[in-house]
Every structure is written in structure tokens, then in C-alpha cells.
Amino acid sequence: MSPEELVRDHTIYSCVMGSRAFGLATEESDTDRRGVFLAPTSLQWRFDKPPTHVEGPADEQFSWELERFCDLALRANPNILECLHSPLVEHADTTGRELLSLRAAFLSRQVHATFVRYAAGQRRKLEAHTRLHGAPRWKHAMHLLRLLTSCRDLLRTGELVIDVGDERERLLSVRRGEVPWPDVTAWMARLADEADEAAAGSPLPPEPDRSRVEDFLHRTRLRSALETGPYDEVVQRVESGGGVR
Length: 245
What we know:
- The protein has 245 residues and is of the alpha+beta class.
- It folds into two domains: 3-103, Beta Polymerase, domain 2; 110-200, no CATH class.
- It contains 13 helices and five strands.
- The chain has a five-stranded mixed sheet.
- Strand 3 and strand 4 (61-65) form a beta hairpin.
- The longest helix is centred in the middle third of the chain and has 24 residues, at 110-133.
- The radius of gyration is 20 Å and the shape is globular.
């Protein structure tokens, strides 16, 4: 089965991400699509495993296999967690809807370290580019401010909201280069400090609910085996706790 077929025939969840999901789209904005596919269990029982991710087949499209997606989400990967919270869902089958119902299980105070660490790395790249070329990358600066705001609010409320809402025009003014660079860097530093303060009293749990996610993945793999392979009797026996003889 080709990677393109996995995405075409086995996608369980897909959404629009990027500026359109963040409420920051302009006439020039692309449509970035992200998705999750479930590789049939029978493919997992071969020496050559299915891919953990697939780029394409459409332009600006990227998908992860379910297990890889869950693993990254449990590690509080910012891009993955935001994908789960896109307001622009294009497709979700039964398994996809169950994945969405688990969004809270992936959230924990670990987001403080991963989001802020990612933001710090991006800020260093921005500052290096500015020193080298004499002009900031305003679009990247805008998205970094958006990410830091999202992180701060997530730590404060326990909920991840990726649409910028009332902050749209203020952020777009950064993209247009209308805000002095020292003011932009001061804004970034303030948001990082506010995220640090919010982390101490955050309503988020210390760790994600790994067992709940693992149970979902286990049941999903078993269902896939029952539907697609000649292993029904074995899988039913394992699912019932009888083991394999």
C-alpha cells in the first residue's frame, strides 16, 4: 500500500491549520492541511512497517500515522496539540471523533517546557536573521507572538484555543512591519514571563493521561485487525483476555 493510498483511504481526521485556523489569514495565505491516518494493523505485522508520516499528496498537506501522532501529542509537541484543536475540521470518522474526545488527555503542564522552549529557539533564529540581514522576518515574529499568547492562556485556563480572536489586528500589524522591532521583542519577553508565572498555578495536570491514550490506541489497532485480516479468532481471544495458544 502506497503512502498516498494510506492518506486517501485511511485518514481518520483532517483539518486546516496555519493562518486560516489561527484567524490570521490574508488574501495571500495558503491552505495548510494536516491529518491523521490509521495504517491497517496487518501492515504493522510485516518487516517493512508503514510510514509514520506522509507529505502530500496535495500541496501543503501533511499527515501522521495515529501512533506517531499520539506519541508526539503526549510529549506536548506544540504543532501536534494545535492540530487537535483546529476550529476548521474537514473530516473525522468514528475513530477520529474518539481521538478528538481525548484532547484533554494530552494536555499537561509539560506544555510550558515544550512551547516556551520551541518559542525560545524560534526567537534565536529570528534575532540571528535580523542581525544578518538587517530586517526582521515579520511574519515569523507574528506567529511566535501568537504561539506564546496561546501557551500563556493554556496554562492559565487549561484550555487550548488557537484562534487569536481580538488580537488579530494587533498581530497583523506586526506582520506588516508596523511595530518597532524592540517593541516586538519586549512583547515576546513579557509573554514568556507571563507563561512562567501561569505555569506555577496552572489547572493542568502534571502529566498527560498516557494510559487513557494507550487504551484508545490498543482498541483501535484491535478493531483494525478484525476488519482487515484473517486474524479474527486470535484477536478476539486476546481482546477477551484469553491469550494466544
